[in-house]
Amino acid sequence: MSSVVSDYRHPAVEAVDAMNVALDEFGEAALWSMPMRDLAALVVSVEKVARRVAAVQVAVLGQADGALVRTLVGAKSTPVWLHTAADVPAWVGRARLGLHQQLTERPVTAAAFTAGEIGQDAAMAVCDAVTALPASVPAALTGQVESLLVGVGRDEGTRAVVRRAMAITHQFAPEVLDDAERWAREHRFLALTTRHDGTVAVRGLLDKETGALALAVLGPLAAPAPAVDGIPDPREAGARYADAFAQLCQSATSALPDVRGERPTALVTISLETLQAAAAAGGPGMLDTGIPISIEATRKLLCDANVIPIVLGGRGEPLDVGRATRTIPTGIRRALVARDGGCAFPGCDRPPSWCDAHHVTHWSAGGPTAVCNLCLLCAHHHDTIHHDGWNIHMIGGMPWFTPPAWIDSTSSPRQHSRYKVTQLRT
Predict the structure, then answer these.
(1) 148 CB contacts (<8 Å, ≥6 apart)?
(2) What is the rounded CA–CA span in Å between residue 1 and residue 334?
(3) Total domain count for the chain?
(4) Are strands 307-312 and 285-287 parallel, antiparallel or unpaired?
(5) Cα separations (Å) of 370 from 6, 19, 289, 327, 357?
């Protein structure tokens, strides 16, 4: 009996294994030998399979959220855990969880999504549309509207779902324009996401009034520059607006509030040899986000009053960081930014501006306010250290994190990957 129990594998695990086997077989198939019509049909079939996999992703993440799997690694939320565990952007995880919750009340949509008849975007559009129906829509019509929109999504796609939903809403509530504008104001957002290579992607939603203001301010700054020697400004509109945004940020820095005792600045770490050398013999500079930049870009940044260099000696030790006090002097904080590059907790990507300096050995227990006894922690992981049983030890001048036994019975210390990269250079 015991061997039967130990050999048991959940049907969901077996199903995923079977999917992987099928994908291996697909990878070995000679697609070039397929007739054109068969190939066209295969493309559509693969898309339907992808939709079904997306439905599985939504369902399994919803279950994982309810089971609190995030606590296995001390993550703040399930989307953050998924980002660490499977390199899925947190906003994608949040969208999946939101859809999972909505689908529990939309059986027709859930069935179509699970069967691959509509994609995730269309499923979200249907759920959002039905949820947004005004109170004047009779309750008996809600199911009918859902079925209609699912059919539209199946036959015509997501955009058609949104437009038909708007038409239905306006049919029952012509005054809904006010509600829509209020919704836009309440759900406005601007997200700046640092991508893997250090470039920053910008996305967002502005209500009508804010959008008009943004266009009015950025428009003149993004206007084509005057022609030089008869040659017009070669920049595309997108590049001009990006330059206008940078110009607006530069002009605004003097009026910004302090962040943890210091006016907002960009920190760039560079070796003394590189700074003094005529060529980039000493390697690249390093932004406080942990992103390397070329020596030429570093020297250009150093001409900006809003950039502070952290010059390193030959052994990578920050120079002139100030003396140890109970409070964290600006120099010591800059040294921590140079060493930690953000929250030191393994897997966390919170930037330095979101972090506080934490005494590894508490001040009340005799711990000094010195770089060798400090590390940067974001608010969530600061709480995690104080309340969830994690311990920090400084080993080789770097923070290591030991999880409680209920997470890891071996109590194996863990370190953020940033430090591993640094060790490769030293």
Answers:
(1) 164, 168
(2) 61
(3) 2
(4) unpaired
(5) 51, 53, 22, 10, 10
Q: Please, are residues 334 and 310 in contact by the beta-carbon 8 Å criterion? A: yes
Q: What CATH number does the domain containing 380 carry?
A: 1.10.30
With both helix axes pointing from N to C terminus, report the angle between 78-86 and 36-66 in degrees, rounded to the nearest 10.
Answer: 130
169, 195, 220 - which closes a domain: 169
**Entry pTM:** 0.56
Specify if 386 maps to a domain.
yes
Nearest to 399 by CA among 387, 390, 408: 390
Q: Does any domain span residue 346?
A: yes
Q: Could you say which of 101, 135, 169 is where a domain stops?
A: 169
> Which residues form the domain of 55?
2-169
Q: If phi over 0 gives left and psi between -120 and 50 gives alpha, with beta otherwise, what is residue 316?
A: left
Tokens of 79: 């989307």
71 domain residue, yes or no: yes
Per-residue pLDDT of the chain (426 residues; tens, 9 = 90+): 444 556 788 999 999 999 999 999 999 999 999 999 999 999 999 999 999 999 999 999 999 999 999 998 888 899 999 999 999 999 999 999 999 999 999 999 999 999 999 999 999 988 888 887 777 677 778 888 888 989 888 888 888 887 787 777 767 666 665 677 777 788 888 888 878 777 888 888 888 778 878 888 888 888 888 877 778 888 888 888 888 888 787 776 666 555 555 555 666 666 666 665 654 455 566 666 656 666 666 666 655 545 555 655 444 444 334 334 567 777 788 888 888 888 999 888 788 878 888 988 887 777 887 888 899 999 889 989 888 889 999 998 899 999 998 888 898 999 887 777 666 544
Decide if 163 contacts 122 (C-beta within 8 A): no
Helix (H) or strand (E) holding 155: helix 139-156
Residue 78 resides in a domain: yes
